[in-house]
Amino acid sequence: MTGKPLPGPTLHTARLRLRPFDDADADDLFALHSSAYVLRYWDAPPWSDRVRAERFITACRQMAEEGTGARLAVDRVSDGAFLGWCSLNRWNPEYRSASLGYCFDDAAWGHGYATEAARALLRWAFDTLELNRVQAETDTRNAASACVLEKLGFLREGTLREDCVVNGEVSDSWVYGLLRREWRPTSEPVPGR
């Protein structure tokens, strides 16, 4: 975590593969981010132009090249289906910290995929990058996302009052934190294949 280029890892779990984005992901990514339902708690409106997906992929590559984060596509191993993405961004080498984020298609909700993918990424963050702290934020109305974070061991540390506008409505966010000494991986990712 020195700000040097860090290639995005490819991580495997029993059911998932997390990998760097490539150009072929643009259509799936656009479908995900153009869904008003999926993004109902997001701090940005759904995409209306496919070029946004191409810019997103370019930004993922730039983030890895600059050593400021990793945003990985998440595929289901059984059929190769694109389910969403999971990321570590805002890496701070001095403080050994980063922020966790994720976005999954609604067809993938309720199957534990977000928890499984985030757990694999957190293991990489704490074991390989030797981070001390990972932070996450979620809209206070997004109970499912809060549940994912709590399953992973994150503690709710506070509320950011009226910190963003979602679909024209002012909303609050919960801030969560997970420290290295509190990290308890409960399932082992399968080494890269």
Query: How far from one another are the termini?
Result: 24 Å
In N-to-C order, the SSE pattern is: EEHHEEEHEHEE
Write down the overall geometry.
globular
Looking across the biggest beta sheet, what order are the strands in? 1-2-3-4-5-6-8-7
- The amount of helix comes to 25-40%
Radius of gyration: 16 Å
Oligomer: single chain
Instruction: Give a quick account of the main beta sheet: strands, pairing sense, barrel closure.
Output: 8 strands, mixed
Q: Please report the number of helical segments.
A: 4
**Quick one: how many beta strands?**
8
Low-confidence stretches: 188-193
> Which class of secondary structure composition applies to the elements?
alpha+beta
Average pLDDT, all residues: 90
**Beta fraction:** 25-35%
Overview of the structural elements:
The protein has 193 residues and is of the alpha+beta class. Helices cover 25% and strands 33% of the residues. It contains four helices and eight strands; from the N terminus they run E-E-H-H-E-E-E-H-E-H-E-E. An eight-stranded mixed β-sheet has the order 1-2-3-4-5-6-8-7, sandwiched between helices. A hairpin with a 4-residue loop joins strand 4 (82-92) and strand 5 (97-104). The longest helix is centred in the first third of the chain and has 16 residues, at 51-66. It is globular.
